[in-house]
Design brief:
Blueprint (H helix, E strand, L loop, with lengths): L1 H16 L3 H4 L2 H19 L6 E5 L5 E4 L7 H14 L2 H12 L13 H16 L2 H15 L21 E3 L6 H11 L2 H17 L10 E4 L5 E5 L11 H18 L2 H15 L26 H14 L5 H18 L18 E4 L4 E5 L2 H15 L3
Antiparallel strand pairs: 1-2, 3-4, 4-5, 6-7
Length: 390
C-alpha cells in the first residue's frame, strides 16, 4: 500500500521540484568553494596529523578524533577528491600527508570500519597516483578486515559486543565491502571478494523489512542464527534510521558494480524507492535523522544521509533504464541544490566544514545538528559524479 499510495505523489513532487534544479546547481562554484574552505581547515589544523577533523563540539570548538576512529579516512579522501578536481599541488601534498596519517590502521583487526578508514583515503590516493605503497596498505587492510568474518555466521562482525550480544552486525558494514572487492582485483585473492558477497547476501536476507527499510543492528549467535533485530542510532528498533537507509543504498549499488549480480541491483532500486518516495521525506530532500521520529520543527535533519544518497543515486543511474536513471539524477540534483544552498552549505566559519545540519548519534546525545566530516566527503563525491554527467 505504501508503494502505490505514495509513488505517484512522490513522483509528481520530484518532477515539480526539479524543473529548474539543474540550472541552480553550479558544480564548479561549489567545488571551488569547497577547496577554499578545506585549505582553511588545513591552516586551522596546523602541522600535526595526530587528530582528524570530525565535527564541532557543543561549546563551538573543533571536534577532532584519533586515527582509530571510524571517520579518519574521510578528510584525506576529500582532499584527494579536491586535488583531482583543482590540480592544486597544495591539496595533493595535504592529501598524501593526511592519508599516511591513517596508515597504522591497516593492521587494526578490532574494527569493521577499515573500508571507511582506508578505502576513502588510500583507495582514492591509489586510484589517482598508483603508488605501490598505497596498494600494500589496502591489501593489509583487507586482510585485517577479513579476520572479522566467521564462515559459520556468514557476515563480518561489526562491534565486539552490543547490549549483551557477541556478534552484532550493522547496516553500515555494507560500506566496507568495496575495500574487499578492490583487494581481490589488486591481489587476485578471491577470498576477499567471496567474503564481500557472503556478507551482502546475508545482510540482504536479514537486515531488510518487506518495505525495504533496514534494521540498524542484527545480532547473531556463533552459528549464524539471528537473536535480535534492534537499533543503536535510530529512533526505535522498528524505525528507519535515515543514514542506515543511505548506507544500504550505497552498499548494494557498489555490490552490483563489483559483481553484476542482478539481485543487488534490484535491492538498490527497492531501497532507493523507499527513500525517495517516503511520505515523511521533506520537500527539500534532506531527511529527518530517522523517518519514524516525531517530525516537529525542532526535529534534527541529517544532511549526511542526503549527501550519501545523492552520491549513490548518481552511480546507480548508470545501471538502470534511461527514464529511471533520469529520475535518480533529478532526485540527486535536487538534494545537491538543497545541500548547496545557504541553509545547508556553511560558507565562512563553521571551522571550515562544508555541510551543516548533520546528526551523528542522537540517542547518545552526540553530534546533533552539526557538520560531520563524512557529510562533506559524500557531498564532494556527489558533486564530482554530477560533474561527469555534464
Amino acid at each position: 500500500m505504501f508503494k502505490m499510495k505514495y509513488f505517484f505523489a512522490g513522483f509528481l513532487l520530484t518532477t515539480l521540484m526539479n524543473v529548474h534544479a539543474q540550472s541552480k546547481l553550479n558544480v564548479a562554484r561549489q567545488l571551488q568553494r569547497a577547496a577554499v574552505q578545506y585549505r582553511g581547515m588545513l591552516q586551522e589544523l596546523g602541522d600535526t596529523t595526530t587528530f582528524f577533523p570530525q565535527s564541532i563540539n557543543p561549546d563551538g570548538s573543533l571536534r577532532k578524533m584519533r586515527s582509530d576512529w571510524w571517520c579518519s579516512g574521510f578528510f584525506g579522501g576529500s582532499l584527494w577528491y579536491l586535488y583531482e578536481y583543482t590540480k592544486d599541488s597544495t591539496l595533493q601534498h595535504a592529501a598524501a600527508t593526511w592519508t599516511e596519517a591513517v596508515s597504522k590502521e591497516q593492521y587494526n583487526t578490532g574494527t569493521h570500519d577499515l573500508g571507511f578508514m582506508l578505502y576513502c583515503s588510500f583507495g582514492n590516493g591509489y586510484r589517482i597516483t598508483h603508488r605501490e605503497a598505497y596498494k600494500k596498505v589496502l591489501l593489509n587492510g583487507a586482510q585485517s578486515l577479513s579476520t572479522r568474518f566467521h564462515p559459520a555466521v556468514g557476515v563480518i562482525k561489526s562491534w565486539n559486543n552490543f547490549k549483551g550480544y557477541n556478534y552484532p552486525v550493522i547496516i553500515d558494514n555494507m560500506m566496507n565491502l568495496e575495500l574487499l572487492c578492490e583487494a581481490t582485483k589488486l591481489s587476485g585473492n578471491k577470498n576477499y571478494y567471496n567474503i564481500a558477497v557472503a556478507h551482502a547476501d546475508k545482510t540482504m536476507a536479514q537486515h531488510f523489512r518487506p518495505d525495504y527499510s533496514s534494521y540498524h543492528v542484527v545480532c547473531y549467535d556463533s552459528v549464524g542464527t539471528v537473536l535480535a533485530k534492534i537499533t543503536a542510532q535510530g529512533y526505535a528498533d522498528s524505525s528507519a534510521w535515515a543514514r542506515g537507509q543511505a548506507w544500504g543504498l550505497y552498499g548494494y549499488t557498489v555490490m552490483y558494480r563489483e559483481t553484476k549480480d542482478e539481485k543487488y541491483l534490484e535491492q538498490a532500486k527497492h531501497i532507493a524507492r523507499f527513500y525517495m518516495y517516503h511520505p515523511r521525506l521533506p520537500a527539500d530532500k534532506i531527511p529527518y535523522w530517522d523517518f519514524d521520529a516525531p517530525h516537529t520543527d525542532n526535529e534534527p535533519r541529517d544532511a549526511s544521509a542526503a549527501a550519501i544518497v545523492a552520491a549513490a543515486l548518481l552511480e546507480l543511474q548508470q545501471y538502470v533504464p534511461k527514464q529511471l536513471g533520469k529520475t535518480y539524477i533529478d532526485f540527486a540534483t535536487a538534494s545537491l541544490v538543497s545541500l548547496s544552498s545557504p541553509t545547508y552549505f556553511a560558507g565562512e566559519g563553521n571551522h571550515h566544514f562544508l555541510i551543516k545540519h548533520g546528526t551523528g548519534h542522537l540517542p547518545a546525545h552526540s553530534e546533533i545538528d552539526v557538520p560531520l566530516i563524512y557529510a562533506d566527503y559524500y557531498y564532494i563525491e556527489a558533486l564530482l559524479r554530477y560533474d561527469k554527467l555534464q
